[in-house]
């Protein structure tokens, strides 16, 4: 059975993205602050089929592990619109389900990435993603609002957050408006690194 997960970076004060997000200003311009640890890893750039990164460390193994375990992705329309023009071909190497009100034919890329546009809600997207994942994990890619929808519906099994040692002061909070009565949380891993702290939690629905 597919595990439902999310894996993302946040600032120390809990922000997933900055202010004024748009296709011309992805993540509100704070990606370099939150994801610096990831951009330094050769494993990240290898997944993009690009040369880059300065390190091949334990952080890179975590990046490889989440890509390896994921069989399908779900994301919101805003995240898709921010990435559509700049993401390399076949970035996800799996089926991606985009939550949107737009009716659009699937976007089939070279390789193994196909984007499907889902107009009838998170449960429909999840059912389709589970089928595509073929027993591997379904990763709720983002943005924050999409992750919040899945949390508040009681659909997340586990999450891995990477806390950057930076304060943003404002922006979009990852856990804004979460129903605190929906789950019990158990700490699974706490992994320190020079540029982030990796925290993995298991969620048990009450």
TrEMBL record:
- Entry-linked InterPro entries: DHFR-like_dom_sf, RibDG_C, Riboflavin_Biosynth_HTPR
Kindly give the SUPFAM superfamilies that the UniProt entry links to this protein. Answer: Dihydrofolate reductase-like
| Superkingdom classification of source | Bacteria
Residue stretches making up the Bacterial bifunctional deaminase-reductase C-terminal domain:
4-188
Give the protein name, as stated in the record: Dihydrofolate reductase family protein
């Amino acid at each position: 059975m597919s595990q439902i997960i999310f894996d993302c970076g946040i600032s120390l004060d809990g922000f997933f993205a900055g202010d004024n997000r748009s296709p011309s200003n992805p993540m509100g311009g704070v990606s370099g602050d939150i994801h610096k640890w990831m951009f330094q890893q050769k494993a990240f750039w290898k997944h993009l089929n690009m040369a880059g990164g300065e390190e091949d460390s334990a952080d890179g193994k975590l990046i490889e592990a989440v890509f390896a375990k994921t069989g399908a992705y779900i994301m919101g329309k805003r995240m898709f619109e921010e990435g559509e023009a700049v993401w390399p071909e076949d970035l996800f190497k799996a089926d991606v389900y985009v939550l949107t009100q737009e009716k659009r034919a699937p976007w089939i890329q070279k390789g193994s990435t196909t984007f499907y546009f889902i107009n009838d809600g998170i449960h429909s997207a999840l059912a389709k993603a589970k089928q595509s994942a073929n027993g591997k994990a379904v990763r709720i890619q983002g943005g924050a609002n999409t992750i919040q929808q899945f949390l508040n519906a009681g659909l997340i099994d586990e999450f891995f957050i990477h806390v950057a040692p930076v304060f943003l002061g404002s922006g979009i909070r990852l856990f804004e408006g979460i129903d605190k009565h929906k789950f019990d949380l158990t700490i699974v891993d706490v992994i320190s690194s020079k540029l982030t702290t990796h925290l993995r939690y298991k969620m048990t629905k009450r």
